[in-house]
Amino acid sequence: MLSYQQAFYSLCKQLGKIYSDTEAAAIAHEIMEFVTGKGRLQRLVEKDNHLDERQQSLYDNAIVRLLNGEPLQYITGVQWFFGKPFQVNTSVLIPRPETEELVQWVIDEWQDKNDLTILDIGTGSGCIPISLKLKLPAASIAAIDVSKSALTVALQNAQQHQAEIFFLEMDFLKEDQWEKLGQFDIIVSNPPYIPEQELDTLERNVRDFEPEIALFVPDTDALLFYRHIARFAKEHLSPDGAVYCELHRDYAQATQAMFEAMSYKATLRKDMHGNDRMLRAERQFL
User: What is the CATH number for 96?
Assistant: First the structure.
């Protein structure tokens, strides 16, 4: 069997075919920790530092999947978000750092308020509502998704982090379902927003593995979910509440204009890369 060091360097060499040396090394360290259950330093000082039969099987399987373009997070089953590990699989999107910025925006503006009611639309792994609950423990939070398998993952994450979230399976685009939901101080969403025509422009690991239902909207209606969110909030957002959405940078201005045309005051915010990627909207009463 390979030693830990031999396995690490072999993995780096193979990953170097599709990643930079720095990326390959970072991924290799993650895989070695996943395979062995031991951190970098522990692997170095371990006396019997060879892969056993079970570890070798995990290692070989991981190499095949990585070279096939599968995201590291689906192989290890974990993605860190807002300082916590979240279970992920191909039923849910892999949480991104940009979404952490959206969550932080909500927390910064509402952390001094009590008895909040919050709705997350299209919850996926549950990373948004769970992170909000951990930082705003007095809030009552509901989360919906059209995917039953995604909600299974979200529920597992909520149980892991001891976050009380009310999950509901719902197709948000069906307006006759909205009556099941009440009124909320905060409505937050990272909805599907990529036009289908952009499929071929995406990285292979996104295009081939992440769930299409959570990514794409029709080419003819890029603002599909935002329009429904704006209409929903007309009746379900409390008078002093706010809507927070993650955006497609190319449609940020159009999304803002749509909300404003529907009598909202809408503000854009840039992400860490300087792109308009988030929106805050509040109702205006004439």
Answer: 3.40.50.150
